[in-house]
């Protein structure tokens, strides 16, 4: 690793940067090897989300500048940012920044899940990754838009202390805010004008891949969106159904139509993932050592099979999620071969328009702009900073109850293994330190956070 690359890794690691749009994989680890392609994923394929688009609209220069810096540090041959072509105003903004920093701009169509890592790499390089292979094994790095913005801040010595979050759905003023990490989600909902329904469900993440969350929960480094929907809508019913019911219904009602396989994005890329075969085996066998079950590890959990494909309303995706957990506990993985499969011949005819996803979930009426608005930080009197907001080991506290901290102070770090450090998101006094979180109480009000 060159001295420039080592400095990049050090700054990104010290800032506690993790993937802001996914599981929270520590970003500095991705920069420890050489790569030919560095891709910024601006597809934001989940419907209703506006975080990445607002960052690209308001912070394009910072994002593209950081991309260029990363490219040069790890000696990448290409840097590219990907966005759906329908957002023409943002495309125009990006064109100027890309031209200035000599990076590429890739425009893609509006389908779901265009932002899936394997799908995105196929769009950019023209070749899909082999099944079970991660981008790094093909010298490719993929970063989320907000992640690259945080890299830019890290290069300036600024740690991750805040999060961009879209709040939309059944709220009075759909918005995208910048909030301190650890802020209670209920404060974001209040800032968006409050809920307009009496019986509702709150989801963290996208309508397809998100999960129900308690409004008292804190914002983390991976919180992307807070969605509020009436409990009667299909999207709420889907997320409210228990795993036990999902598994029971899946065993009883699969009709083996194979629509789940025919529309599966990974199958269409040429992967040997065939959900209908997994469902058939699941219905008739409890032997998890069967080879067909290991194919579940190839599932990206996008939900196309469950929401779009299945005429019976069951969920192959949730079966795959359950199988992945059970198989991992038993040490059973998909055995990667050297196969290089190309996309299915009819792939382009089977792509799912995003508007179809909205219709199936019953949320087309909520498909409107949720642009940036200032969040009043004075409302945040206390933050709860989870010690595990990332893939790997929890951060170990460096502070104790009663300590005075300032925003940006290092309050927890990873002692060994994979992980990410944690910094105070507000100035105040440490109220409590547990095995799961650090609680900081604000001492004085802060001004509204602006762009």
Describe this structure in words.
The structure is a single chain. The strands form five sheets. Strands 7-6-10-8-9 form a five-stranded mixed sheet, with helices on both faces. The chain is globular. Helix 4 packs across helix 7 (145-155). The two termini are 35 Å apart. It has three domains: 3-155, NADH-ubiquinone oxidoreductase 51kDa subunit (Rossmann fold, 3-Layer(aba) Sandwich); 162-233 and 371-442, no CATH class; 246-362, no CATH class. With 451 residues, the chain is α+β, with helices and mostly antiparallel strands. Helix content is 33%, strand content 18%. It has 17 helices and 18 strands.
| CATH 4th-level superfamily of the largest domain | NADH-ubiquinone oxidoreductase 51kDa subunit
Q: Sketch the major β-sheet.
A: 5 strands, mixed
Instruction: Please identify the oligomeric state.
Output: single chain
Uncertain segments are: none
Mean pLDDT equals 95
Q: Count of helices?
A: 17
CA-CA gap between termini: 35 Å
Annotated CATH topology of the largest domain: Rossmann fold
User: Shape from CA axes?
Assistant: globular
List keywords for this structure.
17 helices, 451 residues, single chain, five-stranded mixed β-sheet, globular, 33% helix, four-stranded parallel β-sheet, Rossmann fold, alpha+beta, 3 domains
Topology:
Blueprint: H1 3-14, H2 27-30, E1 37-41, H3 51-58, H4 60-74, E2 78-84, H5 88-101, E3 104-108, E4 111-112, H6 117-125, E5 140-144, H7 145-155, E6 162-169, E7 175-180, H8 185-191, E8 200-204, E9 211-212, E10 225-230, H9 234-240, H10 243-253, H11 259-263, H12 265-268, H13 275-284, H14 291-294, H15 304-309, H16 316-329, E11 352-353, H17 354-361, E12 382-386, E13 396-397, E14 404-405, E15 410-413, E16 422-423, E17 428-433, E18 437-442
Parallel strand pairs: 1-2, 1-5, 2-3, 6-10
Antiparallel strand pairs: 4-11, 6-7, 8-9, 8-10, 12-18, 13-15, 14-17, 15-16, 17-18
């Amino acid at each position: 690793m060159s001295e420039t690359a080592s400095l990049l890794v050090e700054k990104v690691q010290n800032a506690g940067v993790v993937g802001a749009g996914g599981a929270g994989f520590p970003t500095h680890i991705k920069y420890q090897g050489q790569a030919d392609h560095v891709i910024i994923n601006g597809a934001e394929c989940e419907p209703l989300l506006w975080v990445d688009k607002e960052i690209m609209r308001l912070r394009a220069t910072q994002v593209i500048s950081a991309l260029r810096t990363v490219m040069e540090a790890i000696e990448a041959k290409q840097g590219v940012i990907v966005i759906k072509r329908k957002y023409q105003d943002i495309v125009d903004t990006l064109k100027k920044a890309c031209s200035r920093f000599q990076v590429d701009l890739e425009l893609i169509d509006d389908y779901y899940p265009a932002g899936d890592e394997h799908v995105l790499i196929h769009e950019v390089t023209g070749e899909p990754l082999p099944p079970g292979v991660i981008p790094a094994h093909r010298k490719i790095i993929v970063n989320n838009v907000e992640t690259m913005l945080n890299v830019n801040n890290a290069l300036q010595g600024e740690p991750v202390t805040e999060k961009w979050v879209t709040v939309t759905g059944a709220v009075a003023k759909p918005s995208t805010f910048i909030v301190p990490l650890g802020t209670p989600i209920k404060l974001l909902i209040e800032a968006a004008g409050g809920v307009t329904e009496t019986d509702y469900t709150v989801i963290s993440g996208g309508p397809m891949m998100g999960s129900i969350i308690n409004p008292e929960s804190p914002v983390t480094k991976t919180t992307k969106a807070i969605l509020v929907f009436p409990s009667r809508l299909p999207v709420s019913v889907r997320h409210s159904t228990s795993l036990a019911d999902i598994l029971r219904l899946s065993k009883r009602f699969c009709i083996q139509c194979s629509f789940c396989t025919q529309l599966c994005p990974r199958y269409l890329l040429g992967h040997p993932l065939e959900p209908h075969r997994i469902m058939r085996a699941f219905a008739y066998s409890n032997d998890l050592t069967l080879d067909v079950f290991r194919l579940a590890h190839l599932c990206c959990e996008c939900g196309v099979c469950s929401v779009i494909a299945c005429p019976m309303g069951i969920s192959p995706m949730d079966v795959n999620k359950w199988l992945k957990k059970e198989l991992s506990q038993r040490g059973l993985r998909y055995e990667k071969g050297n196969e290089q499969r190309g996309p299915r011949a009819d792939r382009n005819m089977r792509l799912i328009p995003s508007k179809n996803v909205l219709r199936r979930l019953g949320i087309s009426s909520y498909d409107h702009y949720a642009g940036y608005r200032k969040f009043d930080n004075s409302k945040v009197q206390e933050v709860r900073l989870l010690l595990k907001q990332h893939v790997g080991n929890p951060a170990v506290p460096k502070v104790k109850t009663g300590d005075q901290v300032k925003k940006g102070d290092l309050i927890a770090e990873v002692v060994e293994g994979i992980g990410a450090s944690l910094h105070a998101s507000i100035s105040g006094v440490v109220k409590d330190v547990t095995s799961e979180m650090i609680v900081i109480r604000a001492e004085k009000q802060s001004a509204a956070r602006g762009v």
